[in-house]
């Protein structure tokens, strides 16, 4: 299979510069150009070659814009990708070479749906009022010269929804959602692996959020498997990528993912922060906590990448739906 022969030293999302609205050094055209360059560097042309030329361009553009908006700061911006993502995801399912991308994208379609719901429910930010005209001096009978035009202020950025709002929306969205098809066979095995690594077994439901329990899932940035482990992280956790990618092995990837979660918990001692760091990196979380003099996820959530702002409450709602327990209630297994 072509995807299994991908060279693991492709440009990695984890080591690439963050692209997002918070980067003041790039304007929007610059962001889109950088995202497009990222897409051409990370998407294997041998895989996309099975698509027609016009479809290759559309897929590259979608994944490039996903990269830009997922790592931007504004959750509501993701709503703009809803129609495109829903159109192209079935196209990727048509070919064995692109199906792993389709699996990855399908598990993220509800991000766009939730962002769209939040966009409708949150009122737009009103622009600041124009300054009043200067008063006419006493005794002046002639009209003063027209003042120089005041530059139009840039539009105010959209507001990010509060974490509690996102939790409520995700709980409603997942209230009646059945477990993925592969969960029944995999969950007992994965829980045993997590307990063996002294990690709460309920966290195996990360695999529903990451891959919908499909071990073939692969992101355009190179993450793969049930728990979407990046190549560099896999190497650090003792997983081999060649001759067979061990991230695609459910048991090996579960043990590796659990070890990483245990490492993050030793650093943050808070499961909300652990889940956030699993998604966007421990460095991002550490810097945000320091910058905002915070100790809790809710305090820094509006300042994190848009994907992470949605990811953490989705994970929490998923575990609540499957196990009836909140992230804050998780306990380490006894030795």
Domains (count): 2
Could you give the count of β-strands? 0
Question: If helices are DSSP runs of H or I spanning 4 or more residues, what is the number of helices?
Answer: 15
Taking pLDDT < 50 over at least 5 consecutive residues as the criterion, the unreliable ranges are: 1-29
- What is the third-level CATH name, the topology of the largest domain? Lysozyme
- Structural class estimated from helices and strands: mainly alpha
CATH architecture of the largest domain: Orthogonal Bundle
How much helicity do the residues have?
Answer: 40-55%
What's the alpha carbon Rg, rounded to whole Å? 23 Å
N-end to C-end Cα span: 41 Å
Q: Give the percentage of residues in beta strands.
A: under 5%
Order of helices and strands: HHHHHHHHHHHHHHH
Task: Give the CA-based shape.
Answer: globular
Overall pLDDT level:
85
Q: Overview of this structure, please?
A:
By secondary structure, the chain is mainly α. It has 15 helices and no strands. The chain is globular, with a radius of gyration of 23 Å. The chain is 50% helix and 0% strand. The chain folds into 2 domains: 18-123, no CATH class; 179-335, Lysozyme, CATH 1.10.530.10.
